[in-house]
């Protein structure tokens, strides 16, 4: 059988793999029934739906011809590295790293760091636009998580708040 769209083929495999992994992981929890859902019910259903969606995309890649076969291009290493680095830095800044004596810097500074590091991945990024985006994200996150949901975690660095 000939692959007629490489992008759809590998996307379908990815969706199916993640869906099956979630569905299998959800079975270790109490699933329950539709009337009395357990903690594993929602991830199980989502995993099954994602696997079915992946099977549909995979089937499409094998049956519907696309121009030039939708070849997969080169890996975009720069965005990949910066996005992963931004998330790691955010995690360290939010909770600190006691084994290396790095204190928690809080949610606000973590969001600014996350936004600036991730924005560097975009070619031709602008500091002003990134600063505006980071400010909106920080204020929105503060309102959503601290004010409305009343979650308790460091908002500011520990050396400032004590």
Automatic annotation (TrEMBL):
Keywords: Membrane, Transmembrane, Transmembrane helix
Pfam families given in the database record: TctB (PF07331)
Residue stretches spanning the membrane: 12-35, 41-59, 80-98, 104-121, 133-156
InterPro entries: DUF1468 (IPR009936)
Domain DUF1468 residues, every copy: 10-153
Protein name: DUF1468 domain-containing protein
UniProt source species: Polaromonas vacuolata
